[in-house]
Design brief:
Distance between the termini: 30 Å
Oligomer: single chain
Largest sheet: 4 strands, mixed
Shape: globular
Radius of gyration: 26 Å
Number of helices: 23
Low-confidence stretches: 1-20, 26-31, 472-603
Strand content: 5-15%
Structural class: alpha+beta
Number of strands: 12
């Protein structure tokens, strides 16, 4: 019956709400809120010095030392730090030869950006009021680049596996190129910014690290919209050369062995599917914080120019240099799980795109999309509104789309473990850390932007990334507060009606059985006091919506996605910092961002 169908739940702030309940979107909050020496000088400088060395060391170890960490450490012990670095570094002639391919690849992509067919897409409004325009031809560029690589190798212009042969000197050459390139970006942002979303702190180290401009562009006299530097470095160079290098590694192994091992085949195949998925969603990527918040500096541009071509391909480079056979069952399982992860990740993004393009009127999983209308204030004092999606994958947990991304990444890095060394597996733990950090940073920004609306969103979607896990890891700062809150909640539950929900066996054993009365065991008393609310929440199986008999606050979801809360839904710190009783300090530098209702990617 139509009357019983679930209607979209929309949370709207009262028209008379005070402005203080809204988030404020600063125009140019470039001056960091922390004057901490570690955050402003030592941290960025240490990363900029150490990261190139670590990157080169990993590629060298894979290619020259068979991925052996022991051999690598022995080299530094025998030759000393400086001597080992000097002996590892390729010659100038080797770097110049390798950089001819890298610079040629860059030139090809700069030509493809305006020439290949594609629709124009207008991005979200920046804090200064600027709306960047992009040409959506990423898939065409990806396919055209593969064709150029195949034709060039067939015509004998270069070997198909040439990128394997020059991987190490190209990594070294890109290191130097990126350092100079980022200096140019710093100067451009200071003296010739493209938009009003620019500025500097006066601290060269931090400005060089973070960047001085949000949307740097060049070449408007040749192309009406100009070349967007971050789209070029992040997408058209970083992501595209990632895909081509994988194919070149496979071609090199075929040239050496006469076949491609199933381990390398699975790794390359899943990654190519992932990269194709990325370019089909490229215009969604320009709505993420990589583009909308992170400025064009060493922080993001070095990663795309150097880290992606070397570190992001290290597992496949390792498998190409060290052949591994998995067997049909293991190879098939990894391939299927990887493709499944890519598909779920794509479906998450597709739901968000449908929701955005329909203005919140999309149908997701057979029901009208549920949302929260989040209001915020721009730097000009204008009240704006974004839609935060509560349906589909976006209602399971905040940033749930990171889970299938981890799933896919594991499938293409795990084959390297069959050699008995972890040299090719570093990418996966790095990605876990990277996405966890992104989730926490993004929620800080959303909390600042949307204010009370963000708190409402977190009540509706209480879990971070992994349902029933990550939210539970954020408890009160001490067990005394937790025990008091737990006793109060237990008393409230004992006097409240059951509302017909069933508990699963585990939750029933932990919350109602002898284990709960004894604290599971005397050695786990503190654990049960802290996480017993989480165990109780496991029993919620059937989602339902509370009925509203009169106008008032918006309906809230209860059921399998809800957990009774004992503390603030979005403290800007992790469980590790809570355990030590200290809040995490952030360099909350430029907060010029607009997530267009995406809780980085949540709408």
């Amino acid at each position: 019956m139509a009357s019983s169908a679930r209607q979209p739940v929309v949370a709207v702030a009262d028209a008379d709400d005070k402005t203080s309940k809204m988030g404020t979107w600063a125009k140019d909050n470039i001056k960091p809120k922390s004057s901490n020496m570690l955050m402003m000088y030592i941290g960025p400088l240490a990363i900029m010095v150490v990261l190139p060395v670590l990157n080169l060391s990993l590629v060298y170890t894979i290619l020259k030392l068979e991925g052996s960490g022991t051999k690598f450490l022995n080299k530094f012990r025998d030759e000393g730090v400086i001597g080992a670095i000097v002996s590892m570094h390729p010659s100038v002639s080797e770097m110049m030869h390798a950089m001819k391919y890298a610079l040629g690849f860059m030139a090809l992509q700069l030509v493809f950006m305006p020439l290949l067919p594609g629709k124009y897409y207008v991005g979200p409004v920046s804090p200064s009021g600027h709306r960047p325009t992009y040409k959506a031809n990423g898939v065409a560029a990806f396919l055209a680049t593969i064709v150029v690589w195949m034709v060039g190798s067939l015509l004998g212009l270069f070997k198909a596996g040439v990128l394997f042969e020059i991987a190490f000197p190209m990594c070294a050459g890109l290191n130097i190129f990126a350092i100079v390139f980022c200096l140019g970006l710093y100067l451009k942002g200071v003296y010739a910014p493209s938009t009003g979303d620019s500025g500097c702190t006066g601290n060269f180290v931090f400005d060089y690290w973070w960047g001085t401009e949000l949307y740097p562009r060049f070449g408007h006299w040749m192309w009406s919209i100009g070349w967007d530097i971050k789209q070029f470095t992040n997408c058209r160079f970083g992501m595209l050369i990632w895909g081509i290098m994988l194919l070149s590694y496979a071609a090199h192994q075929y040239e050496q062995l006469g076949y491609v091992t199933d381990a390398l085949l699975v790794s390359v195949f899943v990654q190519e599917v992932y990269i194709l998925k990325f370019f089909s969603w490229e215009m969604g990527y320009v709505n993420t914080m990589d583009i909308q918040h992170d400025r064009a500096g060493y922080y993001i541009c070095y990663g795309c120019l150097v880290f992606v071509p070397s570190f992001y391909t290290s597992h496949s480079l390792f498998l190409a240099a060290n052949p591994v056979t998995l067997g049909p069952i293991t190879a098939s399982a990894l391939a299927i799980s990887g493709v499944l992860g890519v598909w779920v990740n794509w479906d998450c993004d597709n739901q968000k795109v449908k929701f955005r393009e329909s203005g919140g009127k999309a149908t997701i999983w057979g029901s009208p999309a549920r949302m929260i209308r989040a209001k915020y204030i721009t730097s000009k004092g204008e009240a704006k509104e974004s839609l935060l999606l509560l349906s589909g994958w976006w209602g399971v947990s905040r940033h749930f789309h990171y889970v299938p991304e981890w799933m896919a990444a594991f499938s293409w890095t795990a084959p390297s473990l069959w050699t008995g060394t972890a040299a090719g597996f570093f990418y996966f733990p790095y990605l876990v850390w990277l996405l966890l950090d992104r989730a926490f940073r993004d929620e800080l920004r959303c909390k600042s932007k949307y204010g009370a609306s963000w708190a409402d969103y977190c009540k509706e979607v209480p879990y971070r990334i992994i349902p029933y896990v990550l939210e539970a890891l954020r408890g009160p700062p001490n067990l005394v507060d937790c025990r008091s809150a737990l006793l109060a909640r237990t008393h409230a539950r004992s006097s409240a009606p059951r509302c017909g929900r069933q508990k699963c066996g585990l939750a029933r054993a932990l919350t109602d059985g002898p284990g709960a009365r004894l604290g599971v065991s005397r050695g786990l008393v503190s654990f049960s006091r802290t996480y017993l609310p989480f165990a109780r929440a496991l029993g919620s199986q059937k989602p339902e919506v509370e009925a509203q008999s009169q106008p008032g606050p918006p309906a809230r979801v209860v059921g399998s996605l809800r957990r009774p809360r004992l503390w603030s839904p979005t403290p800007p710190h992790s469980s590790l910092h809570l355990a030590s009783g200290r809040r995490r300090r952030f360099v909350d530098a430029p907060s010029d961002f607009d997530l267009f209702g995406t809780a980085e990617d949540s709408a």
